[in-house]
Design a protein that fits this description.
The chain is built from eight helices and no strands. By secondary structure, the chain is mainly alpha-helical. Keywords: Signal, TPR repeat.
């Protein structure tokens, strides 16, 4: 009976511990939470083969740098620092990287430079949904509601109307023009 009581008490404590433990979930703005793959370079005969430590190290360094910049943007709202971190990756030809640079410039209020980066992101990947969303929000902020609607339609073609990106831009377009809201 004593062993049974100890087991029940242990089970009760474990259950309470699990129930009281905070649930840890990472929340990211899809689809940019995972860094794009590093660029593929032409190999010289003396370079390491794919899968080698050197290649894995470069991929890991890029992924870590991307995640650090991502955290600077979405957790600390340190857009200037994030721009420098993203540019230092040497991958501003990637839609995901260019989009985050454009987003950071937009948040800093530099709309002309932001537009350049959004267009660069779409040139790199015309199907990059997050860029269509952020550039659409840029259009709303600029009062270009027809262009924002075009971006919304493009998102609908790519992901349908239930995606986070679609809902976000649609909600921004539902607000009356001239409210001065910044997204």
């Amino acid at each position: 009976m004593n062993k049974l009581a100890i087991r029940l008490l242990t089970l009760a404590i474990l259950s309470l511990t699990l129930a009281a433990a905070p649930v840890v979930t990472a929340v990211y703005a899809a689809p940019d939470n995972d860094p794009p793959p590093p660029p593929k370079k032409k190999k010289k005969s003396s370079e390491a083969r794919p899968g080698s430590e050197q290649t894995a190290f470069a991929q890991n360094a890029f992924a870590n740098g991307y995640r650090a910049a991502y955290a600077a943007i979405y957790e600390r709202h340190d857009y200037a620092s994030a721009i420098e971190q993203l540019k230092a990756l040497g991958r501003d030809d990637s839609a995901a990287v260019a989009n985050l640079i454009g987003y950071s410039y937009r948040k800093l209020g530099d709309y002309k430079v932001s537009q350049i980066w959004y267009e660069r992101a779409l040139k790199a990947d015309p199907s990059h949904v997050k860029t269509w969303q952020y550039y659409g929000l840029w259009q709303v902020e600029q009062g270009n509601r027809d262009q924002a609607q075009y971006h919304l339609n493009r998102i609908a073609e790519l992901t349908g109307t239930t995606s986070e990106e679609y809902r976000s831009l649609a909600a921004a377009l539902e607000k009356p023009p001239g409210t001065g809201l910044v997204y």
